[in-house]
Design brief:
globular
Length: about 200
């Protein structure tokens, strides 16, 4: 069981890391980012395999295990998008000059994140928006299921067993995440990102 506690966040970090990896070196500037992405892909596969091998199957069966993996993969995608949005805003406002080992250098007024291209940055933020909407839908579904299982009335659905602050906190965090993603996509000035947000929204 302790292995399962570590593998799930490790998978989320492994999903996020390739989007935030900024080290490049000529002559092939894509070599190191592709190597980092490949290693993270192997890490996700190994972590999930180790988790599946050591843990007993859940009572939900294989579908529950796939749903759990989807949660952690979307968490990693959302984490990558939020951090990339923050990096892009730092670049846009010219505040990323002292962060060269961790943040790709950029001129003020250009938000391209560590992906080094504004359309790719916008696509990452669009995937983060999708992950945020998916997390909101899953949270709402879970609240409805918990509420019906406990009392079956509207108050139980709203308060989730006496924890109304948890629902409020989730709503506030999702609103701030949406605001950060929206500011990041606006800073990229990418028409690709605008089209993607129109399709998602």
């Amino acid at each position: 069981m302790p292995l399962a506690v570590f593998t799930a966040p490790l998978m989320a970090l492994a999903v996020a890391f390739p989007f935030l990896f900024q080290y490049t070196q000529p002559p092939s500037t894509n070599f190191w980012p592709l190597m980092a992405a490949g290693l993270c892909g192997w890490l996700v596969a190994i972590a999930w395999g180790a988790r599946s091998a050591c843990c007993a199957p859940t009572d939900r069966g294989a579908g529950g295990d796939r749903a759990e993996m989807a949660v952690w993969l979307s968490a990693g995608l959302l984490l990558a998008a939020l951090l990339a949005s923050a990096i892009g805003l730092l670049q846009y406002f010219g505040a990323a000059t002292g962060l060269e080992p961790w943040v790709h250098p950029s001129r003020p007024g250009q938000a391209m994140g560590n992906l080094r291209q504004r359309n790719q940055q916008a696509t990452l933020l669009s995937m983060g928006l999708w992950a945020l909407f998916w997390a909101a839908a899953q949270t709402q579904r879970q609240l409805l299921v918990d509420g019906r299982g406990q009392a079956g009335d509207a108050a139980a659905v709203r308060h989730t067993g006496g924890r109304p602050w948890l629902v409020g906190l989730a709503g506030v965090l999702m609103a701030w995440a949406l605001a950060l993603l929206a500011a990041g996509i606006a800073a990229t000035a990418s028409r690709t990102g605008l089209a993607q947000w129109c399709v998602i929204g």
